[in-house]
Design goal:
The protein is of the alpha+beta class and 173 residues long. The chain is 41% helix and 28% strand. A three-stranded antiparallel beta sheet has the order 1-5-4. A two-stranded antiparallel sheet has the order 2-3.
C-alpha cells in the first residue's frame, strides 16, 4: 500500500501540471477508441530507485552523504522504592525503572506520543479535565552509554543507532 501511494506521489511530482484542455482531449481520445491503444503506461518501480529519488531530492529527512547512521539518545530516570529488603534490591529496581523510562523516551522520539484530552463542562463551569498520553513502539538494540546512582535516583543514558536508509523506510510517514 505504501509503495502504491509513493508511486502515485512520484508520478504526480514528475507529471507536472496538465492544462484542462489537454486532459479533456486525452479523455475524449481514450473514450473514442474503445478497444484500441490506451495512453496509460504502467511501470514498476524498484525500491532502490525510490531510495535514490529520496536521496537526490532530499525528501523526508535531511540527508548527508557522509552520514549513513542516525543516533537517538534518551535519559531515563528511576527512583529506588523505600520498602525494599536491602539496598541492593532498591538499586536493582531503580535501575530497571530507569531503563524502562529510557526506552519510553526513545519510543516517544521515534514513534510520537498519542495525546487524548477530555473536558466536562456543566453550567458553563469546568467540572473535570483529563489528559492522557500514550506511547506504543518497539525499541531494539539500544545501548546504555552512561549510568549513575545518586541519592536514590538512578539515571541511565541510552543510545539507539539506526542506519539512515532503514530509518527513512520505517519512520518516514
Amino acid at each position: 500500500m505504501k509503495n502504491l501511494f509513493f508511486m502515485l506521489l512520484v508520478a504526480a511530482i514528475f507529471g507536472g501540471c496538465v492544462s484542462s484542455a489537454t486532459s479533456t482531449a486525452k479523455t475524449n481520445k481514450t473514450a473514442d477508441t474503445s478497444g484500441g491503444s490506451s495512453d496509460v503506461v504502467v511501470q514498476k518501480v524498484d525500491k532502490d530507485d525510490v531510495r535514490d529519488i529520496i536521496r537526490e531530492e532530499k525528501m523526508l529527512a535531511p540527508y548527508d552523504a557522509s552520514e549513513s547512521e542516525l543516533s537517538f539518545t534518551a535519559v531515563g530516570e528511576g527512583i529506588a522504592p523505600l520498602n525494599t529488603v536491602s539496598s541492593a534490591q532498591a538499586l536493582a529496581l531503580a535501575k530497571r525503572a530507569a531503563i524502562t523510562d529510557g526506552y519510553r523516551q526513545l519510543a516517544s522520539k521515534l514513534y510520537g506520543v498519542k495525546v487524548n484530552g477530555k473536558d466536562t463542562v456543566k453550567d458553563a463551569m469546568l467540572r473535570s479535565s483529563t489528559i492522557t498520553a500514550q506511547v506504543n513502539g518497539l525499541i531494539k538494540n539500544a545501548s546504555i552509554i552512561d549510568e549513575n546512582f545518586n541519592q536514590g535516583l538512578y539515571r541511565v543514558n541510552l543510545e539507539l543507532k539506526i542506519d539512515a536508509d532503514k530509518w527513512k523506510e520505517l519512520f518516514a510517514y
